[in-house]
Write a structure and sequence with these properties.
By secondary structure, the chain is of the alpha+beta class. 45% of the residues lie in helices and 14% in strands. Bound molecules: 2-acetamido-2-deoxy-beta-D-glucopyranose (3 copies). One 2-acetamido-2-deoxy-beta-D-glucopyranose binds next to loops.
């Protein structure tokens, strides 16, 4: 392993320290980690703070020099007064008396004023205040969010903390590695989230890195003990009281007065008090399919006689005569088709530019109370675009030409931006109940445009249909969420896998059934039974 990094305190810790000193009004809401765009903004904020701090330090240095020179000068005067002559002789001299008075009245007062009303510090405070006000500022909840994202990635992609800490992601060696303090911090955050197994994993990694570190670490043993104490409690929470005891005893053997003593007493007490079982939350039913498909593995399927094909389609609409649609069937009944190369890079740039102009807002999911709550299950930032610009008008025509649906029933396009760890857990696109008032009928179809390639992760997966789709820039996928009877098709539950490396941008267009009477007439036969078996 290459040498691990140098500084004990990261830049951010320092800045946070500063801000705490400066009593900065909180401006953050735990939203930074979810979007690559906001993280880029954050890098800009850091640059601003770095520059401001540099200015601050230089100005303070100059001011200190001023004080120092003044003090030296006064010292010289005093030395002369004491050593050179009698004090009464000194103050008896009109020039000396004048100097002393002037120093007291003007110079010292001026100096005190400078010290008390530290303009440099005031300027710095204002600058930082302004930056935070303009861009927002991350706080503890952002760190928690990032750690949760880490946890998700580990779970979905089966990544070990060991590998992550060494910068190995899916077998790929990346440039960055974590230092023991960072692993420790991740462990503590997971511990606070009651994710004891994961936190234990990170504590072990922190411990490993700490003891192999060749760097001189002040209080190394103290940190080792701290880690061991945490590991003991995590072990205890996981039902391994014995391992917990061994770890604590190890500490106490070397340092009998360590706080581990209280911890041991407390754990012993709890052990005797109760036989409380640690509740291990069971995975939701879709979990196995979800992780498998996110990792890009399908279950083998028996041959049904019908095979999926790829074909060029020039007949669907006259607009495709010259440039036929490149259709890839990925599932039959319900039909899911990918249309490749429907948007070019220039069009995508225009769409993203347009959506950048709208304010990116953290997507909110409707809570049970009908209000909006920010939920971890959906980690992205999103904005909505209507179809009035040229590029959006052509996109609207494209959807209509491919689907045959009337865009009168279409919602604005939702453009979403998923950063690292950004995901959307399995969900249907239909409402089924509580239909929105602005549209007639439920969401009959979904059209999803991929507006970026993703280096690793970010598949769209259909957990009940054994289908995974890696995002391919410029492609679009379309399916129907309702049966011909307009009953909901529960087989269409799908998810966006967490982004492992890179940034995922998609555009979603949902069309409602209300305007489509002549485009997709109900069949007389009732086909809702197809998805009856898929009820949860
Ligand atoms: C996860 O990875 C470990 C090796 O690191 C392997 O033994 C295990 O089978 C994997 N689990 C899944 C569900 O892929
Ligand atoms: C479409 O969105 C743009 C940008 O937000 C706005 O200026 C325009 O009024 C909207 N047009 C319609 C028809 O809503
Ligand atoms: C998991 O996928 C298989 C294969 O497609 C499917 O038969 C099964 O119903 C799925 N399980 C769940 C809980 O969705």
């Amino acid at each position: 392993m290459s040498h691990r990094s140098r500084c004990m305190f990261s830049f951010w810790q320092l800045v946070l320290l500063f801000l705490r000193v400066l009593h900065l009004p909180g401006g953050s809401n735990g939203e930074f980690y979810s979007s690559v765009d906001t993280m880029q903004g954050l890098a800009y904020v850091e640059k601003e703070i770095l520059d401001a701090t540099h200015v601050y330090v230089k100005a303070q240095e100059e001011q200190l020099n001023l004080y120092r020179n003044f003090v030296e000068q006064v010292k010289r005067e005093h030395a002369m007064a004491i050593d050179g002559m009698q004090l009464d002789e000194y103050v008896g001299h009109p020039l000396h008396a004048f100097r002393l008075l002037k120093r007291m009245v003007t110079d010292w007062n001026g100096l005190h004023e400078l010290m008390v009303n530290n303009k440099v510090r005031e300027d710095y405070r204002q600058k930082i205040d302004q930056v935070a006000k303009d861009f927002g500022y991350p706080d503890q909840t952002d760190i928690q969010g990032a750690v949760k994202a880490f946890n998700r990635l580990q779970e979905v992609y089966n990544l070990t903390a060991n590998h992550l800490a060494d910068g190995i992601i899916n077998g790929k060696l990346t440039e960055t590695e974590l230092e023991w303090r960072e692993c420790f911090e991740i462990g503590v955050q997971l511990f606070d989230l009651k994710q004891y197994e994961r936190s234990l994993e990170w504590f072990k990694v922190a411990f490993r890195i700490l003891i192999i570190s060749s760097r001189k670490i002040l209080n190394r043993r103290k940190f080792e003990f701290e880690l061991m104490e945490y590991m003991a409690i995590a072990n205890f929470q996981l039902g391994n009281a014995k391992s917990a005891g061994i770890l604590l005893d190890q500490i106490l053997k070397e340092e009998p007065t360590h706080s581990a003593q209280q911890t041991r007493k407390y754990l012993l007490h709890r052990e005797m008090l109760s036989t409380e079982k640690v509740e291990v939350a069971s995975d939701p039913t879709w979990h196995a399919n979800y992780t498998r498909l996110c990792q890009g593995h399908r279950l083998p399927e028996p041959f049904t006689g019908k095979s999926l094909r790829c074909y060029l389609d020039a007949k669907r609409h006259f607009s495709f005569i010259l440039a036929p649609l490149k259709v890839e069937q990925v599932h039959l009944d319900p039909d899911i088709n990918v249309y490749h190369g429907v948007l070019n890079d220039a069009q995508i740039d225009k769409i993203l530019q347009e959506s950048d102009e709208m304010e990116m807002r953290r997507s909110a999911v409707s809570g049970d109370d009908g209000g909006s709550t920010i939920a971890d299950l959906r980690v992205s930032q999103q904005t909505w675009l209507n179809y009035s610009s040229p590029v959006m008008r052509s996109l609207s025509n494209l959807i209509s030409d491919i689907s045959g649906f009337d865009m009168g029933g279409a919602e604005h396009m939702q453009v979403a931006n998923y950063g690292v760890g950004g995901q959307y857990e399995p969900h249907p696109d239909y409402f089924e109940v509580n239909l929105p008032n602005d549209f007639k009928g439920d969401r009959i179809s979904t059209t999803m445009f991929y507006l970026s390639d993703v280096e690793l992760g970010g598949n769209t997966v259909f957990v009940k249909l054994n289908v995974f789709l890696p995002p391919i820039k410029g492609a679009m996928v379309m399916w129907h969420n309702l049966h011909y009877s307009l009953d909901v098709d529960r087989r269409t539950i799908h998810a966006g896998c967490p982004v492992l490396i890179g940034s995922k941008r998609i555009g979603n267009v949902w069309i409602h059934s209300g305007y489509q009477e002549f485009r997709r007439p109900c069949l007389l036969t009732y086909d809702e039974e197809k998805s009856l078996g898929y009820r949860d």
